[in-house]
From TrEMBL, chain A:
Named cofactor requirement(s): Mg(2+)
Pfam families: B3_4, B5, FDX-ACB, tRNA_bind, tRNA_synthFbeta
EC primary class: ligase
GO cellular component, one term: phenylalanine-tRNA ligase complex
Cofactor binding annotation: Binds 2 magnesium ions per tetramer.
Segments forming domain B5: 468-544
Name of the protein in question: Phenylalanine--tRNA ligase beta subunit
Keyword list, A-Z: Aminoacyl-tRNA synthetase, ATP-binding, Cytoplasm, Ligase, Magnesium, Metal-binding, Nucleotide-binding, Protein biosynthesis, RNA-binding, tRNA-binding
Protein family membership: Belongs to the phenylalanyl-tRNA synthetase beta subunit family. Type 1 subfamily.
Originating gene: pheT
GO molecular function, one term: phenylalanine-tRNA ligase activity
Domain of life, source organism: Bacteria
InterPro entries: aa-tRNA-synth_II/BPL/LPL, B3/B4_tRNA-bd, DNA-bd_dom_put_sf, Fdx_antiC-bd, Fdx_antiC-bd_sf, NA-bd_OB-fold, Phe-tRNA-ligase_IIc_bsu, Phe-tRNA-ligase_IIc_bsu_bact
Signal sequence bounds: none
Length: 861, 370
């Protein structure tokens, strides 16, 4: 959670603080919480001072302007003027003796609150010298002073076009405006980690800063002041129906408050913290939230439904607050102006049902607040509120968080409750609420209710050292040092810990460390204590040491190197690697002709596009091809990623697959297919797969790829007996389903089969000792004779035939229809002797005869 | 004897020859099988005794002289030709090369490779664990108790238990509300999740082998989020070291080594306090800015790149004792550290990319840059 923190406010709890805001920010970042940025609140207010209007005269040359003499004090620039400067001004609400904001030369202003900022200069306006400007709020970025009206006596006449009246500040003329308004401050934005809700308020944060910088930390003491003379009977009852989800509920009833705008000092702090001022009562609840980190809420007591009972003949009015689960069908109009549907998962605050009798009313009233998240509009504080009920409670963090998500609603309160707050906090916050209310809005406390239905702990002193069980840790300073890696003297450690509120007891090497109540949620063991010591010492102060000790004695996992090799080979062959999302939509699975129920489904899909884990990597590949189809390029992609297949009672199988694809407009038929077949051969050769071969797939075969691939343009890829996968063109109907117009070919291999075979075919033979005799042969044969058949027949002709290599394939002009011309390089060699030309010739003649007899080949010359 | 005249004549002709072919003709004329010299040799058979021997010698000398003259002339011609080579055989060398097709490895692959290589030098072995795993490995054993936000359904993807209920009889998926199903569940290990981090490898590795452990795991992770800086699928890197007497200083040493190897020898890291459930203490790792060198200032002005001297890199911490215990390792005997970060975020920082989704939408123009 990010907190905006005023440096001046922080300093209120650290009177001895000397460090600059920058220093505080830096130290906080290194020792506790990351300060993400900071800025001065008086930025843009340079050279603007408080001026006192001494004299107002008419402008000689303009009816709507006045010439005003303003006392601006001892501004060095104006020393010769005895502190008085003439200013031409058009404001209508000026009076002598009024304090105003004067922009002196060099100040940056925005004329009439519009356009770019301009720098003030001494000018002449219609022939009269003007040495400054009397400003309206929006001309110097102080709209806050007028947008949220101030109480009577503070800044009346804050109209948009009117001069900002600052008489209420009672500042001396010449005082920098920022100082007069308390804006000479720095605000830091601090990221408080989720484990530290105790620091999500000024007091907790000040405690932390005090410990880091060694500055004494103090909380202004507050006490409840109830009016004993108050005659009003105790009329509020609090019932907690779900004690586990509401360990504490305090209610403070105050009578005779006057709702109105908050004073500037209060507003200023809310604004600096990023909170919008509303009215004094709401502002006070926010102020206490910001100060103590304890969320509070104010109800208008008159708007809570109540029951009327007759007891001993007297009519008694009783207001009730019930903490219970919501009900299906219940709704609440929240303070944000939206209506929310509640149900039995949402913890609510309800009031009484006025029509029911005392014995059966529980749970019957209407919800008046979503517990820990937001109050209801109908029972909120308004201008005419006189009697208020403050709620200072503690709610279960998980319930609050789930409620936030279910309703899509969160607030500064829920952001704290969902971290888990100490149950001791409410009493401090309650006292502070009462005190501030009295100070700002008047009124008396007439009743305090404190329900602790499930609270085992009793808070102690106001500084609140927790007394509960289970918050003690036994550690030794030696263990702490060992964990950190440097020797830190025990006395130093103790100092760090006590500074943070921990209690250290026990002997020299057997400590018992007690967590303070505000850190109890973290109480654990040695590591927690070591963490506190180490961060106070400063992680940045620790030396950097490479780990000693032997690395694990284990042969490396070669799978990753193999994957890398495959990827490098494909990259070298001009292919582009893809990474695609592992999940797809159910629609895509259907489109690929697969069964949705055979895919791993997400229980909580993110959208209709992300519902299943892909059962076939090819779907991702087809989508990628479709996406890039319009580029009009040859698309040569590959991806080595997982497919996911469900298994009964086990984790799904994550089957790694390699798909290489070729798509785009072909220059000749079969280009993609043969391109990929070549890639298959290249992979097999470079990866050294033993006995790599292709095999035609029988049409009747029911393999998983039968329906995906073009029945006349697909081959099985094998290494020995192992089936690696296929290379082939995709079935036209599959492509049609994806709206892909051009032909697409895939090479689809199983990594599980491929990886173990890498290198299996690398057998090294001695170099040939005898020179080969080389011959070429070219012949015309019917096209029905497949290449593979020809090669097989040629290779069987004689053991002396060592190598057969296709070098030309031609059909067309000069070759009869239905035939093609085929040409091979042949190489004859004997392992025992140098072959003579005649010996080679004999084999060659045998070959020619066989080709003629078997295939009707016509030899070409 | 005419041999002198022949020699004179031959030499003259050779001297005047202007091309290889003329020289070749002359060679054939004088030294060929049916050439002048051969004819003289043929006539030797008619002579006898000393005269035959004398003339034989003379002819051999003649043959030798002519051969030498031919060689000399040939050499001279070659030298001349070489001098004119640049003009005679000029190619337009500015034409493009016959290049091989360009292929591209995905930037994520390249980053994974580089990180693996650096950590391998410190003895860390890359491992792979399930992307779909049990709650126990993803949360419970990592000290994230029930009710922890990460275990909520809006943060993490869970795997549906009964597939059938998700679809209508015709195979079409049910609308989300109607199709609500329970997550697949193991009686002991809990629900089946799409791992939201790579840390599920921690306890799995501890179960696989005893310390010393030096493991890295780089894998796909999944979270229910999708915006400019968050993708529902991304990659995380995670390093784990468990041994006797491992302290925070060793984590610092390892991270500094990585920073120098990956970013450059002047770079270093800084640890700041943070909070994670499965480590205690926990840190955020910063890396010093490469522009201002970690000072946050350039010539007295605030560095525009980092604004503070440091960039946030990732998270780290000392393995929580409860996690060690879950892995069957005695925290009194062993300690360890874990560190990790998002690969994409690291790359986005390096490449100045603003939208993480660019990595996985298979856009050729994007991919062809790498």
């Amino acid at each position: 959670m990010n907190l905006m923190v005023s440096y001046n406010w922080l300093r209120e709890y650290l009177p001895g603080l000397k460090a600059s805001p920058e220093e505080v920010a830096q130290k906080l970042s290194l020792h506790a919480f990351s300060v993400e940025r900071w800025w001065r609140t008086d930025e843009g207010l340079e050279n603007i001072v408080i001026g006192k209007i001494v004299k107002i005269e008419k402008h000689p040359n303009a009816d709507k302007l006045r010439v005003v003499m303003v006392e601006v004090g001892d501004v060095p620039l104006f020393a010769t003027k005895k502190g008085n400067v003439p200013i031409v001004c058009g404001g209508t609400n000026l009076f002598e003796g009024q304090l105003v904001a004067v922009a002196l030369p060099g100040a940056k202003v925005r004329w009439h609150g519009e356009g770019e900022q301009v720098e003030m200069k001494i000018t002449e306006i219609r022939g009269v010298k003007s040495e400054g400007m009397i400003c309206a709020a929006n001309e110097i970025g102080l709209e806050a002073l007028t947008l949220h009206p101030l109480p009577r006596g503070e800044g009346e006449g804050g109209g948009k076009r009117e001069i900002l009246d600052l008489t209420w500040t009672k500042a001396k003329p010449g005082t920098p405006l920022a100082k007069a308004l308390g804006l000479d401050d720095t605000v830091m934005e601090i990221e408080i980690t989720t484990n530290r809700p105790d620091a999500m308020g000024m007091i907790g944060l000040a405690r932390e800063v005090g410990a880091i910088l060694g500055v004494k930390f103090q909380i202004p003491s507050t006490k409840f002041q109830t009016n004993p003379k108050s005659q009003i009977q105790k009329s509020l009852e609090v019932k907690v129906e779900v004690p586990k989800l509401c360990p504490r509920y305090m209610a403070v009833v105050m009578e005779g408050v006057k709702v109105g705008p908050s004073p500037w000092w209060l507003k200023r702090r809310l604004i600096a913290s990023g909170v919008r001022p509303i009215n004094n009562i709401v502002d006070i609840t926010n102020y206490v939230l910001l100060e103590w980190g304890q969320p509070c809420h104010a109800f208008d007591a008159a708007k809570l439904q109540h029951t009327n009972n007759t007891r001993n003949g007297d009519e008694q009015t009783r207001t009730e607050i019930v903490v219970r689960m919501g009900k299906k069908g219940e709704k609440i109009l929240a303070l944000d102006g939206n209506t929310y549907d509640l149900d039995e998962n949402i913890l609510v605050i309800a009031d009484a049902n006025p029509s029911s009798s005392a014995k059966q009313h529980y749970g019957a009233g209407r919800p008046v607040a979503i517990a820990g998240i937001m109050g209801g509009e109908e029972t909120g504080v308004h201008a005419d509120t006189m009697r208020i009920v403050y709620e200072i409670a503690n709610f279960d963090p998980v319930t609050v968080r789930r409620g936030e998500h279910q309703l899509g609603l969160s607030s500064d309160s829920s952001a704290r409750f969902n971290k888990g707050l100490p149950t001791q906090l409410p009493e401090f916050a309650a006292a502070r609420l009462a005190e501030l209310t009295k100070q700002v809005a008047g009124g008396e406390v007439v009743q305090v209710v404190d329900r602790k239905p499930s609270l085992g702990l009793r808070p102690s002193s106001p500084l609140g050292r927790g007394q509960g069980e289970g918050n003690k840790v036994k550690v030794s300073p030696q263990d702490i040092s060992r964990m950190i890696g440097v020797e830190i003297p025990a006395t130093q450690m103790k100092k760090y810990l006590t500074g943070l509120g921990f209690k250290v007891a026990g002997s020299a090497n057997k400590w018992s460390v007690t967590f303070p109540y505000w850190r109890e949620i973290e109480a654990g063991g040695l590591a927690d204590i070591a963490e506190e010591v180490a961060r106070m010492y400063g992680y940045h102060n620790l030396p950097s040491v490479l780990p000693a000790g032997a690395p694990p004695d284990e042969p490396p996992n070669i799978q990753f190197a193999q994957e890398r090799m495959i990827k490098e080979i494909l990259r070298g062959a001009g292919l582009t690697e893809l990474y695609t999302y592992s999940f797809i939509s159910a629609d895509e699975i259907l489109r690929a002709g697969l069964k949705v129920e055979n895919a791993v489904a997400l229980q909580n899909p993110l959208s209709s596009e992300i519902t299943h884990m892909r059962p076939w990597l090819g779907i991702s590949m087809l989508l990628s091809i479709k996406k890039n189809e319009e580029a009009g390029k040859m698309l040569k992609f590959f991806e080595l990623s997982s497919e996911y297949h469900p298994r009964m009672g086990e984790l799904p199988e994550e089957r790694q697959k390699l798909i290489v694809s070729c798509a785009g407009r072909e220059e000749r038929d079969g280009q993609h297919f043969f391109g990929l077949k070549g890639i298959a051969e290249h992979l097999a050769y470079v990866l050294g797969l033993s006995d790599f071969s292709f095999e035609k797939i029988a049409k009747s075969e029911k393999t998983p790829w039968a329906s995906r691939y073009h029945p006349g343009r697909v081959l099985l890829c094998k290494a020995g007996r192992d089936i690696l996968g296929v290379v082939g063109e995709l079935h036209p109907s599959l492509l049609k389903a994806y709206g892909i117009e051009q032909r697409v070919a895939f090479l689809e291999w199983e990594a599980k089969v491929l990886l173990p075979l890498i290198g299996s075919g690398r057998v090294y033979r001695a170099p040939l000792s005898y020179p080969p005799v080389k011959r070429d042969i070219a012949f015309v044969a019917p096209k029905t004779v497949e290449y593979a058949t020809l090669v097989a027949a040629i290779q069987q002709i004689d053991p002396l035939l060592h190598k057969v290599e296709l070098f030309d394939l031609y059909e067309g002009k000069g070759v009869p229809e239905g035939s093609r011309s085929v040409a091979f390089h042949l190489s004859y060699v004997s392992p025992e002797r140098t072959l003579t030309a005649q010996e080679a010739e004999r084999v060659h003649e045998k070959l020619v005869k066989m080709l003629k007899d078997k295939f009707g080949a016509k030899i070409r010359n | 004897m005419k041999s002198n005249n022949i020699l004179q004549e031959a030499k003259q002709a050779i001297e005047q020859a202007q091309s290889q072919s003329v020289l070749e003709e002359l060679r054939v004329k004088y030294l060929g099988r049916k050439g002048i010299v051969a004819e003289f040799f043929a006539q030797l058979t008619k002579l006898k005794g000393d005269e035959r021997a004398r003339q034989g010698q003379e002819l051999n000398a003649l043959k030798h002289e002519i051969t030498r003259a031919l060689e000399q002339r040939e050499n001279a011609m070659q030298t001349l030709a070489l001098e004119k080579l640049a003009e005679a055989e000029a190619l337009d060398v500015t034409l493009p090369g016959a290049r091989l097709p360009y292929g591209h490895l995905h930037i994520t692959t390249q980053a994974i490779e580089e990180i693996s290589r650096i950590f391998a030098q410190l003895g860390f072995q890359r491992m792979r664990y399930p992307e779909i795993d049990w709650d126990y490995y993803a949360f419970e054993s990592l000290n994230m108790p029930k009710g922890h936000p990460a275990r909520d359904e809006w943060e993490t993807f869970f795997i549906a238990g009964s597939q059938q209920t998700l679809t209508r009889p015709n195979g079409h998926p049910l609308p989300e509300r109607e199709g609500r199903v329970r997550a697949a569940e193991h009686p002991k290990l809990g629900r089946m999740v799409l791992t939201p981090h790579t840390s599920n490898g921690q306890v799995r590795e501890m179960e696989r082998r005893r310390p010393p452990i030096r493991m890295i795991n780089i894998a796909k992770c999944y979270r229910r989020q999708s915006d400019v800086t968050h993708a529902p699928m991304f990659h995380q890197f995670e390093g784990l070291l468990i041994d006797r007497n491992v302290s925070v200083t060793h984590l610092k040493g390892t991270l500094d080594y990585f920073a120098r190897a990956y970013y450059g020898k002047d770079r270093r890291t800084r640890l700041r306090p943070f909070h994670f459930r499965f480590t205690e203490p926990s840190f955020e790792i910063d890396i010093s800015c490469g522009i201002c060198g970690g000072t946050g200032e350039i010539h007295g002005e605030r560095c525009k790149v980092c604004k503070s001297g440091w960039h946030e890199l990732g998270g780290a911490g000392m393995v929580h004792p409860n996690v060690l215990k879950a892995g069957g390792i005695d925290p009194k005997e062993y300690s360890g550290f874990a560190c990790g970060w998002g690969i994409e975020r690291m790359l986005m920082m390096k490449l100045k990319l603003s939208d993480i989704r660019a990595f996985y939408i298979a856009d050729l123009n994007f991919l062809e840059q790498f």
